[in-house]
Each structure stands twice: as C-alpha cells, then as structure tokens.
Amino acid sequence: MKPGVEILPNKEALIARSLKLVVEKLQEAVETRGEATIALSGGSTPKPLYEALASQPLPWSKIHIFWGDERYVPSDHPDSNERMARQAWLDQIDIPEQNIYPMSTEAGDPQIDAQSYENELARYFQVAAGEFPAFDVILLGLGDDGHTASLFPHTQALQVCDRLITVGNKDGQPRLTFTVPLINQGRCVIFLVAGASKQPALAEIFAETSDPQTYPARFIRPQGELFWLLDESAGAAFK
Ligand code: 6PG
Fold first, then answer.
1. Which residue in 42, 140, 153, 156 has its CB near the most CB atoms, within 10 A?
2. pTM, two decimal places
3. Which residues line ligand 1 (CB under 6 A)?
4. pLDDT of residue 118
C-alpha cells in the first residue's frame, strides 16, 4: 500500500482516526513551538471531525485557525466553509476571535481578497515575499474529479507557484485557495476521503503516472508528513 495511506472500516472510524491525528499534531506543535496553526478544508467530509474537535480539551488560546480554501460567497451563506466550521466547532469552544483567520470575500473582487489573505498570512508568519510558511496541519478533501482545496482540473490556479493564495475556479465560480507550493510546505497534510464516488479519482492519484493537471491532488507532495485517511468505501481497492 502507498505510504501514508490508512483505510478505516467506516466513516465513523475515519473521523475518529483523523481526530486523534489532528489532536496529536496540534498538541505537539504547541509543546514544541508554543502555538499551532491549522488550515481547514471545506465540503461535507470534515464536518463531523470539526464537531468532534469541539469537545477536545486543547489549549485553544495557542491554536490559530485558517482556511485552505473558500467559496466566494458571504460568510453567512450556506456554502461558506467559514460558516460550516464556526457552526460545527468554533462557536462551541473558548477560542479568542483573533485566533480565527477567515478568508474574507467582501472586496467584490476575488483577486483583491486573495491578496488580502496572502498579506494576512505574511504578517502572521512573518515571511517575506517569495517565502512559503509551514502550517502545522493542513486538512484537505478530495473532489470526485480529483481536485483538492479549490485547485480544480485544468485551471490557472494549478500553475501559480509564486504566491501563497490564488483564485480558483469551479465551473466559472471563483474560489479562494492555497496554492500548491503553500500546501506542500505543510508539516502535516491530511487528506480525509470518504465514499465510493472518490475511488476513480483515487485510482488516478495513486497510479504510477497520470496527469496532475487532470487530477490536481497529484501535485500534493508535502515537505512534511502526508496522510491519506480513507474509509472502506473510498479505499477498498487500494489495500
Ligand atoms: C471545498 C473543499 C473541497 C472539498 C472537496 C470534497 O471548499 O469544497 O475544500 O476541496 O474538500 O470538494 O468535498 P466533500 O468532502 O464534500 O466530498
């Protein structure tokens, strides 16, 4: 089996395993560096993980929450990744609001909001232009089409290698997203993948050769650790 791939018997076991791993990595970061940074993924898969994190006794004042991508909608829109994470998790814990860094979508121009988030990351991590900060944990999902974050097949966002944040494009709808090099700077990148619909994309991503422009998750080869946490429905073929 491919290194870093774990196949859990069902969705509940997948969430339990991801919870254990995320808690472990956040605690480790706080112990070694005094604080921890995590970038959240959107979609539906991580929601039970966020709900479970809400009951974890973690030092939230030392943990800083970012998003790896965001739909270009207001933060109270049903499609907002920020809204989902706040309702499932962040509104339930005692975390300082200044520890939460949503991707703003208020400028009316995704390029402007992408630049603003890039500036916010540069300030937080104290990095100069051209430097890529290392998040302690980056959570990622996988689309049926092999996209991850908002890095969609055959889009301009896949080519951006000199920025931290860029504008993704899903069927003409703008998104804000981490770039490939920013994700690949992560200390611990964790894919959470559930459901049989992900199998065809996983087969291409795990294959010896296939086109990363078509299956963008193939671009994700982080400096740090890479975990593919799959449930049986998604991963049965890769045992
Ligand atoms: C988003 C996500 C996206 C998601 C995948 C999988 O904003 O939608 O960041 O990359 O992780 O599309 O979504 P599901 O978990 O809903 O299958």
1. 140
2. 0.98
3. 41-45, 69, 81, 141-143, 147-150
4. 98
pLDDT averages per 10-residue partition of the chain, 239 residues: 92 98 98 98 98 98 98 98 98 98 98 98 96 98 98 98 98 98 98 98 96 98 97 95
Distance from residue 39's CA to the centre of ligand 1 (Å): 13
Distance 44 CA to ligand 1 centre (A): 7
Q: Where are the beta strands (DSSP E) in 61-211?
A: 63-67, 69-71, 100-101, 137-140, 165-170, 173-178, 188-193
| Measured distance CA(103)–CA(19) in Å, rounded | 24
